[in-house]
Structure prediction request, 95 residues.
Amino acid sequence: MSESTSDRQVVLDLSREEAWVAHVALTREIDRQLDEGEKPVRERALLSALERDEPVDPGALRTLRDAVVAYLDDAPDRDVVTGRAVLGTIDAALA
Prediction:
């Protein structure tokens, strides 16, 4: 699950496979934004926080959720179940 901190920030406890799907989803979103001339500041900060197992706020969790949902639209079959597990972890952390 997730470890809640006192200021509503959480550290997501993801398996190696789940962390990989989250990473791929965020990097795809970063690439999409760069291709559209946008600056993915929030997504880059979120990716860095996840890679360092740092706590993230609910807004960052929603950003991650959006990225994973978008990724699952055309994800390889091998990532679908894992991606859904990531969504479950995010939803539990946001509840």
In short: The mean pLDDT is 92. The chain is about 65% helix and 5% strand. Residues 16-35 form the longest helix (20 residues). Helices lie at 16-35, 41-51, 58-72, 77-94.
